[in-house]
Recover the amino acids of this structure.
């Protein structure tokens, strides 16, 4: 019985399509693996640092490492607070409350922007939540977090009335609105410290950890494999050989 050899007849439209698409699919897969590694490192750093002894605020410096636990003594600037918009907690609409804090030891008199956690908001946006003042000297514990700048659909501008609604935790913008120097990072409070609301900090979004990125990477790689297999079947007699061997 003669054996049929694999033969090729390159189908150029399919070949050009595959050559154009494969780098994109493979690049997306590699990028998702890179994102998974970034989140894995972030989770590991958070777990390592949150169990460390808190650093005194005076020893933090101007660029402390992310998630560094710290303790700071001073007083809240109760007259000025920001409401970080569109924060969802347990399916309910609300805000994160950002209040400037005057530390005992701050270079150049810069204030510390303290994220006090989540408060529920009015879904109709007709009213804003009242911010509870915290009087006197207090001691806070928490951890260092980065500022953030994300795409926003609505720009509320710089409001005049406090508390001011904001879309981003961008420290240089908040400094302009406050009219006073602020430190270039955010301080996220621990639970049960003066001024804290609901604090349930997450290093990564729930359900979007490293495993999700790996699943997406596998999907992109499978799509790339499908493109290659399709090209093989169209540009050769492989399908005929497979069908023949199954008879």
């Amino acid at each position: 019985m003669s054996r049929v050899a694999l033969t090729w007849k390159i189908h150029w439209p399919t070949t050009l399509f595959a050559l154009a698409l494969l780098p994109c699919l493979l690049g997306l897969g590699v990028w998702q693996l890179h994102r998974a590694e970034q989140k894995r490192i972030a989770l590991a750093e958070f777990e390592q640092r949150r169990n460390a002894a808190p650093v005194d605020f005076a020893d933090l410096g101007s660029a402390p490492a992310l998630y560094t636990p710290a303790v700071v003594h001073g007083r809240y600037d109760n007259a000025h607070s920001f409401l970080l918009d569109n924060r969802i907690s347990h399916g309910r609409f609300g805000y994160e409350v950002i209040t400037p804090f005057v530390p005992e030891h701050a270079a150049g008199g810069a204030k510390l922007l303290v994220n006090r956690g989540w408060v529920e908001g009015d879904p109709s946006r007709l009213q804003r939540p009242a911010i509870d003042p915290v009087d006197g000297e207090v001691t806070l514990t928490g951890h260092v977090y980065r500022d953030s700048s994300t795409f926003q659909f609505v720009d509320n501008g710089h409001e005049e009335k406090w508390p001011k609604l904001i879309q981003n935790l961008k420290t240089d913008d908040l400094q302009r609105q406050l009219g006073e120097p602020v430190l270039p990072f955010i301080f996220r409070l621990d639970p049960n410290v003066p001024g804290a609301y609901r604090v349930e900090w997450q290093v990564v979004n729930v359900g979007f950890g490293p495993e999700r990125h790996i699943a997406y990477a596998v999907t992109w790689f499978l799509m790339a494999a499908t493109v290659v297999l399709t090209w093989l079947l169209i540009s050769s007699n492989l399908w005929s050989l497979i069908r023949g061997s199954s008879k």
Summary: The radius of gyration is 27 Å. The helical segments are 12-50, 171-178, 210-235, 238-246.
